[in-house]
Design a protein that fits this description.
By secondary structure, this protein is α+β, with helices and mostly antiparallel strands. The chain has 15 helices and 21 strands.
């Protein structure tokens, strides 16, 4: 006999008992009230369209307190009204179909006492089921006589689910914190560029990705810009990302061409985890030449909006992803940046959508870049808004926006460049010193700094004459923060700082420059090498 027919007995005649169970123990009888009274579920039975209360069991009274039979449910069972069950019971009575309300919080009122503090009031979670009560012989299609309500305690399940959600939330927060801690906490601020960046974790689970970006000051006013994406998700991907970012910063100090940096990084990725593939874009901006040199390893092409509002897709220097160990060499490309140019480096989370072609996403980003205005932060926010990331996007997104600002008037006078081809013999050093003194005076550089600049040029030129090869070139640059001295020649042997012995006739020039300058260094070029030093202004 099903429970709705037991309920029918209560709804029809509360004095009757359930007949003997025919299937197993035909000689026993079970009083229906005794059976329901000890049931662990909360049970209430009503009859008629007015839901007149017929019966509540002990479990129901323990939670909600004593209830008076013969009273409509809206008065006798106010707790059901609080949880929206009376309307549901009306539907059950009219349609003859059961309804369920899951996991409602219920305050226990059966064990309270006057003045009990709310903090001591017990509560639990119950799933309520309302089912029609029909006469025993009516079957499923018969007229509904009443409604049986029973509630199952699901507090343990709800609490377990809450604990699981909290654990997942904390796990995700830890993963995101790890990921963010591996990203630069503050972007370096190049003299000649304005830079903005953004990282957005994907999805709502703990599986953060391995997207990263970085801005690295190389010296002599040059700036390296990096963005990458480790394939896969989770803490492992974030950890590999951190190792690659550290390796990039170390290799960047070598001031090698971008494609050589990526080749070194490819070997490092293989050593870290041969099963983990990553993509990367590495670019270097040289303000002296106004050129951005770039290379990508399986990464999406950077986009450039030049000063004439033309979009360039830098897809001509792409090599295999990092960690593939392929023999295909990486290459570098070059593009001249005019004042007002904007460059965007990004990961696939910004442009990739399920069911859409990736090139369409890149073209959409290019169109949004063309329509954007303002400084990098405004451009960044406009691009993110225009790309309309799905609310539940499941891929991380990183973006780096850099801009070469237009400078006019007094601001332009703070950023100056002057160069001199060093031709001739022994008089080259004297010409270099005279040129430096005159240029620095015209730039209104203080006398002490002019003397230090002239001394640095004298040592660099002397070193180039002794150990370098023609052609040689001197370049002076000033920004609003520093003075930069560079001497280039055609020899590819870079100088090293060493301790000169007392009887050595050479080896002191670099040591002198390292002493008087804030920083110094050298880098290989396509034509040979460049040696540089920096002095702070003010």
């Amino acid at each position: 006999m099903n429970i709705t027919r037991w309920g029918a007995r209560l709804a029809g005649d509360r004095r009757r008992t359930v007949p003997a169970a025919r299937s197993q123990e035909p000689n026993d009888t079970f009083p229906l009230r005794d059976v329901l009274a000890h049931a662990p579920a909360l049970i209430a039975v009503t009859r008629g369209s007015n839901h007149e209360l017929c019966y509540v069991n002990d479990a129901y009274r323990a939670v909600f307190g004593a209830r008076k039979a013969g009273v409509p449910a809206r008065d006798a069972l106010p707790e059901l009204a609080e949880h929206g069950l009376l309307t549901l019971m009306d539907k059950v009575y009219r349609t003859g179909r059961g309804r369920t309300v899951r996991a409602r919080r219920v305050d226990h009122r059966g064990e309270t006492y006057p003045g009990m503090p709310d903090s001591e009031r017990k509560h639990g979670y119950y799933t309520f089921v309302c089912t029609p009560v029909r006469p025993e012989a009516a079957g499923r299609g018969g007229d509904t006589r009443g409604v049986l309500v029973f509630a199952v305690d699901v507090t343990d399940q709800v609490q377990a689910t809450d604990r699981l959600r909290e654990s997942e939330r904390r796990h995700r927060q830890a993963a995101v914190t790890l990921q963010r801690s591996l990203l630069p906490q503050r972007l370096e601020n190049p003299d000649d560029l304005i830079v903005a960046a953004k990282y957005l974790p994907g999805g709502t689970d703990a599986a953060v990705g391995g997207d990263w970006y970085d801005v690295i000051t190389l010296g002599a006013g040059r700036t390296a810009l990096v963005i990458g994406d480790v394939m896969g998700r989770g803490v492992r991907a974030a950890a590999v990302m951190g190792q690659l970012r550290t390796a990039v910063r170390a290799y960047a100090r070598l001031d090698l061409p971008p494609h050589e940096i990526l080749q070194l990084l490819d070997e490092t990725a293989m050593e870290i985890d041969a099963t983990q593939i990553a993509t990367c874009a590495y670019a270097v901006y040289d303000p002296g030449e106004g050129v951005l040199t770039y290379s990508t390893a399986g990464h999406l092409p950077p986009l450039v909006r030049d000063g004439d509002d033309v979009i360039h897709k830098l897809d001509d220097a792409n090599g295999p992803p990092l960690g593939t160990g392929g023999n295909w060499p990486h290459t570098s490309g070059r593009i001249t940046l005019d004042p007002g140019s904007t460059v965007v480096l990004y990961t696939d989370g910004l442009v990739e959508r399920r069911g859409e072609d990736l090139d369409e996403g890149i073209d959409t980003l290019g169109s949004a870049l063309l329509a954007s205005v303002g400084e990098p932060e405004a451009v960044r926010d406009h691009l993110i808004a225009h790309m309309q990331l799905p609310e539940e996007h499941d891929d991380d997104m990183a973006m780096l926006v850099l801009q070469l600002p237009r400078r006019e008037g007094a601001q332009a006078r703070l950023f100056r460049t002057a160069s001199l081809d060093l031709l001739g013999g022994s008089e080259v050093a004297a010409r270099g010193r005279a040129f430096t003194s005159g240029v620095l005076a015209s730039w209104q550089v203080g006398e002490e700094l002019r003397e230090l600049g002239v001394l640095a040029v004298s040592e660099f030129v002397a070193n180039a004459l002794t150990h370098g090869a023609a052609p040689m070139r001197l370049r002076l640059r000033r920004t609003d923060k520093r003075l930069i001295v560079e001497v280039s020649d055609a020899d590819d042997h870079v100088p090293r700082r060493r301790r000169a012995a007392a009887d050595d006739e050479s080896g002191r020039g670099v040591a002198i420059v390292a002493t008087i300058a804030k920083s110094w260094g050298s880098r290989l070029t396509d034509e040979g090498k460049t040696v540089w030093c920096e002095f702070p202004l003010g």
